[in-house]
Design brief:
The chain has 303 residues and is α/β, with parallel strands linked by helices. It has helices spanning 2-6, 12-24, 39-44, 52-62, 67-71, 94-105, 126-135, 155-170, 190-193, 235-247, 263-272; strands at 73-76, 79-82, 115-120, 146-152, 178-184, 201-204, 253-257, 275-282, 288-295.
Amino acid sequence: MWELGEAGVPTPEADARLLMAYALAPEPTPSLPRVAASTMDLFMAGPEPAPACFEGWVRRRSKREPLQHITGSAHFAGIDLICEPGGFIPRPETELLLDWALGESRPLLSRRGEVRVVDVCTGPGTLALAVGCALGGSDATAETPIRIDGIELSEAAVSVARRNEEQLRRRELLASHVTVAFQRADALTPDGLVAIGGADLVLCNPPYVPVNAEVSTEVRADPPEAVFSGGDGMDFIQAWVPQLAAMIRPGVSVAIEHDDATGAQVTEVLEQHGFANVIQHHDMAGRDRFVTARAGSAAKSPQ
């Protein structure tokens, strides 16, 4: 633990416990993520020698390699995802956007017909798969078909997302009436926008960090195109929102995660393009985290 603290790891005690929990976990079968041992298992193993991999993992973490890359796994909203370089590491703060999305989605399940959710800049499928697992996990929704489309530019990230969809199905965490499809496409082109036309809910966790921002070594381990977006972090959002407005149906809700310094700008660009009920949401520390809105009459349906 002291080694991690000396290396500047922000949370050395928590990281040491997590590394040990993953080290104590059974080796996963091929194509499945490692699932950390429980707190009770960690406590009961206290007197035992550390697993052989633990010391090497600590050395790697002391070099600021992300913990999720070391273990090959990331826990997000109750599910375990394959995590490796090339796919954006899931962050716990995005669970706040997920909670909002589930609150918006569940009332739709009582209607007839398919419910469609589009996750733009899906990365390794984090939001798309978390929504799919949560919405499909209730017997009350068993008759409601759910389709989730994940749009992502990176071929490497799409590959990880598809493997995550496969492993969640193997573990029976995705119900049979939930369809998840990942498409490699630029979200600023017609190919990347077409799914939005039929969506009931649109989610987006885009690149939003200013290129000159001071970020941690761990953040720099993510693909830069998934993190940075121009001088103020707004390049993608400013280019995408007008195209979103041209495709989305009136009344459909949208959520966009953003940098904690650009909440007012995201709000403004949504209002400028006809969105109503624009609301700023905050994280547990009170920082601006994501904005939600509803497509108004000024937003156009596809012709």
